[in-house]
Design brief:
homodimer, alpha+beta, Creatine Amidinohydrolase, Chain A, domain 1, Creatine Amidinohydrolase, 10 helices, globular
Chain lengths: 386, 386
Amino acid sequence: MTPPHRGFPEDEFRRRTQAAQALMAKHNLAALLLTTEPELRYYTGFLTRFWESPTRPWFVIIPPTGDLIAVIPSIGAHLMSQTWVTDIRTWAAPDYDDDGIGLLVDALNEVAGDEGQIGIADQLESYVRMPFADLRRLEAALLTRALVSDAAITRRLRLIKSESEIDKIRHAAAIATGAFNRVPECVASGMSLSQVFRRFQMLCLEEGADWVPYLAGAAEQAGYADVISPATDAPLEDGDVLMLDTGLMWDGYFCDFDRNYSVGPPSAVVQCAHSQLIAATLAAADVAKPGKTISDLFYAMNAVVNPSGDVMEAGRLGHGLGMQLTEWPSIIPQDHTVLEPGMVLTLEPSVTVSPGKILVHEENIVIRDHGAEFLSDLQSADIRVI
Amino acid sequence: MTPPHRGFPEDEFRRRTQAAQALMAKHNLAALLLTTEPELRYYTGFLTRFWESPTRPWFVIIPPTGDLIAVIPSIGAHLMSQTWVTDIRTWAAPDYDDDGIGLLVDALNEVAGDEGQIGIADQLESYVRMPFADLRRLEAALLTRALVSDAAITRRLRLIKSESEIDKIRHAAAIATGAFNRVPECVASGMSLSQVFRRFQMLCLEEGADWVPYLAGAAEQAGYADVISPATDAPLEDGDVLMLDTGLMWDGYFCDFDRNYSVGPPSAVVQCAHSQLIAATLAAADVAKPGKTISDLFYAMNAVVNPSGDVMEAGRLGHGLGMQLTEWPSIIPQDHTVLEPGMVLTLEPSVTVSPGKILVHEENIVIRDHGAEFLSDLQSADIRVI
């Protein structure tokens, strides 16, 4: 498995920036203010695990034309100088009196003039990563140049992946496939779920993951109660369904899919539920063609897993995928986003096995001109056995 | 190495909540609104890696008296019901029309009445984790009951760790120590830094880490240019200083320290820099007694690493540690926080070896009545050799 090239050619960042600038003109925005890890990385290529520290805010400004301006803590200057960004303004953060706000206001004034509107991400799946008191200070200092919605510009651009981005997600998925394939040789009845989690993360790293930001799962008799819990020290028992759901990362891109394993031979009910999940995944993949909508995917899966037509309470059946574990859009009945080539999605049907017990399956696809291409290795109807 | 118990007795969450309520009364707050992972977990015990997904907002309200109210996506109801929280209100998120704001406003009105002020974290190291448009919607719906500063209540409480919290951090540190000790047997000249990163994360897991949210490092000749970069595929060479800095987690608590290794015998300059760093750490540990201040720690270290008295640009020489990789306060000259028993800190002196090249060392301590207790295994003056 030869990995793709790391990073992106400078052209790709330039293209992304210019695409944002074209949309800014359309929405009458004199600047875009970026504050979160994926926003900064999308336009600059600034890749670091240092965001784990909540101490310091980081800002990048997209001007109406020309190149980006980074207003960042001095601790990041060296790494940022290795990206295509050349206008890098720094302060010695943390500064208890003014943690970058003065510097940021100056830069925004320079870019947006006296009256220009400044766009900031404000829609679902976003937040503003800076202290709320500083956000208010910023708004006060900007006077008439209000902070307004960024019109979801970055979210819209990130929705369609380039071939280089797709290559990275495919590689991440191949690494996870390698790890999932080795689970039966490393895991056995009697092992605690916390040991299984640890071992699985090691398998992901051995297979080539840069890191494993996400792992959830469960092991319970004939299905599980939820899919977001951390591991307990309870031992695996015959009749358990072990589910492992990973978001591992390669060069800043995620895969996100799960695999179910029956500990010992599966019961008929569990095997039947698993077959249903694969059938639902295939039904969605079948309709996943440009021109169809996200809600079409929902109904294709729901018709298989809920033949009555009912919609489950926690009803998302998949989502976007890329620089983040979960991205826009959500596969729900209310999402009418039209599918386009280059969208990367997870298909994640869920089925109720018995009251309070579910089984969830997940695969990753990219939308192509002709339909869905699987990035993960589509599972067969038969549940895997440990 | 026997791990401490997982989780906390319900009493500890109750104590934290009541301490917050006492401070709320003092600051005339009728409710505290919590939106981020560490805030929610501190009061509820809600522990999941699912926060990696940015899709859904999560809210917890602390009323002036009585128990917490969780207003959360239904996908988290099962896990939240296993904590001590009993008032759990859910919605089927994501909801494109109203992603929990209606439910949240109702709960806040119920708790804060017509006029009560609602506190929200707004100081350094915090942010509000919800879409900015929803935050504005919330503020509009609250009418006269303004969102005001939480007076850093949660930050102040989290500053002093309980013995159970300290036990978890000590255990995380012991796991990292085990991994660092095995580096020389797994790493050799010629190996790529990205391979070293992978192998080191596996060692952390083997030694018992639940997961490894943070790893940074570098390997360059006689020092490195920065400490936040991801790994490259460049091979280790004789004369490199390999630095690995990990924040691994055990039961929701971090350690955060680094180790430096000379690849081959160290030069006199590198050995001298390392000795200076250990001397600086010891100097800070010596003054780390209740009644002294954070700035005292800064000056104790700075006097050793910058005998001229100059202060480096990216000048933080350590920070708080606990549920997050970095916590309040920052060891800078401007921080006059008085040291108290139960504070957990990193001591992180940095020394300039040559223009653009630094060496950084880090240890973890807890403040006791008598002074500093090391939670990490204090290194000797001699740099380790690979």
